[in-house]
Amino acid sequence: MSVQANSPSRAGRHAAGATPPTPRRASPARRAAALLRRQPIATLLPFAVVIGVWAVVSALGIFPSSFFVGPATVFDSMVDSVRRGILPAYIQDSLTRLAVGAAFGLGIGVALGFLIGLNRYVRKFCWPVLLFFQAIGDIAWLPIVIIWFGFSLTSVTVVIVYTVTFPLIISIVAGLDAIPTNLLRAAASLGASRWRTLWEVYVPGALPGVSSGVRTGLGYGWRALIAAEIIIGTSGVGFMMFDARRQGDVSHVFVGMAVLGVLWYMTDALVLAPLEKETVERWGLVERIGR
């Protein structure tokens, strides 16, 4: 349950000059340790069940070993790839490409999201086009992107930027639409300028949409990255999986799948979700009762 942050109790504290302490931001490693301490069973049990079923199916020999290998074999292959330095290098390449593409996509998405969401004329003109391109999947762009930029890092980056941008724009517009009208009327009655209304009403009000759009966009961008690496990449986790497929090395295909799942789970649970919660509460948009 939530209430508006500008409640009398909070206003009284601010009027009294009390400055709430700023919590120290925990590192991802500390967040992981805290998560395991708070919810060890809820966090690890689903993975343990999946791995257990996987091991049983593999041991029963239902599928040929050339098609399906057990978790022990996959773990041995992963250790070997780490020991030879192949897997760390590929992970670094994939994360670097995602970071570059996401940075451009987030910058473009935030700017266009606020422009479209705050100007009804721009929105009326751009919204049909926005929905049109949103419906075109990232893989559908790969052929034309390869023609334009070849088998290069630029092609991968363009696909990631495209995939991140559109969900973010739509989420920001939805967040701006969800701002209560009484907040805008209150700002106008207090004589707030357009810039002050933007920074103190629209920006905080759109933060839930921004946070949701970032999480959704990065999720799509991560999948687009892997697809691009499989088709046009020369390194990265996606390339490793495709190269293993060509060699008939099923264990390294499973290694790539496991790495992709673990990396995204850690990114979302330890970075994106805490950042979303911290950002919204810091801007004073939502206050949880009984906190």
UniProtKB/TrEMBL annotation:
Membrane spanning residue stretches: 41-63, 98-118, 125-149, 155-176, 220-242, 254-275
Mode of membrane association: Multi-pass membrane protein
UniProt keyword Transmembrane helix present: yes
Chain segments carrying region Disordered: 1-29
Key word S-adenosyl-L-methionine present: no
Domain of life: Bacteria
Domain spans labelled ABC transmembrane type-1: 91-276
Alphabetized PROSITE patterns for the sequence: ABC_TM1
GO biological process: transmembrane transport
CC per GO annotation: plasma membrane
Subcellular location: Cell membrane
Biased amino acid composition, Low complexity: 14-29
Coiled coil: none
Keyword terms: Cell membrane, Membrane, Transmembrane, Transmembrane helix, Transport
Main localization category: membrane
Alphabetical list of InterPro entries matching this protein: MetI-like, MetI-like_sf
UniProt similarity note: Belongs to the binding-protein-dependent transport system permease family.
Name assigned to this protein: ABC transporter permease
